[in-house]
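Chain A, query sequence.
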Amino acid sequence: MRSLMLLLATSMLALTWPATSHADGKVDCEMRFTMKSWSVFYKTAKGSGTIRCNNGQSMAVKIRAKGGGLTVGKSTIEDGRGEFSGVDGINELLGTYVSAEAHAGAVKSAKGQVVTKGEVSLALAGTGRGWDLGVAFGKFVIKAD
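Chain A, predicted structure.
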């Protein structure tokens, strides 16, 4: 199951990642986070993390995800990681992203997802505990802490 979710996340990232290079002045950023979620048709999740960029910028953030669909469960993501597509600066990463996900897990599970906000994409992956099953659509919000 873990391999399938990571393969799905990698495939989705490859399809949505814009072509960028360091030559065009873009900054590479990564987010480390933890998150707790629950769902019964309506899914909600909250967490926190830190975004660090290769130009030295860093920011503590709060994360929130909400959406609906055919979903049920309760889980915690520990040691979550996110990679952003190249941007001009860290402030471009704040805001609301569109999300769609399929998830299934029990006890220890892995999760992969790609969310987008205009030309900015964020590939998320992490491992955690809990159980969940379903398909959900909604929004993923990153705010400065």
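Residues 1-23 have pLDDT under 50 and may be disordered. The longest helix spans residues 2-16.
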